[in-house]
Specification:
It is built from 4 helices and no strands. The protein has 71 residues and is mostly helical.
Length: 71
């Protein structure tokens, strides 16, 4: 049984917040990993919502800074 995308996103955001509150991290990796486990196609479904497409930022260093500057 697949959850609605909105419920999956809510669970991922809750996991991020819990990660932050427990001091186990900034909550930036956990949501994506959880979302992927709940529904491997969720990222594709979210990308379909972007009218102008999307950009991928991938590297060893500087992803956060680059993504922030692009946003």
């Amino acid at each position: 049984m697949r959850l609605p995308l909105a419920a999956e996103i809510l669970a991922a955001r809750a996991a991020a917040r819990l990660s932050q509150l427990t001091g186990r991290g900034g909550g930036t990796t956990v949501p994506g990993k959880l979302l992927w486990k709940l529904d491997p196609a969720a990222i594709d479904r979210l990308a379909q919502r972007l009218p102008a497409g999307s950009a991928l930022v991938s590297a060893t260093n500087g992803k956060t800074t680059t993504a922030a500057m692009a946003a």
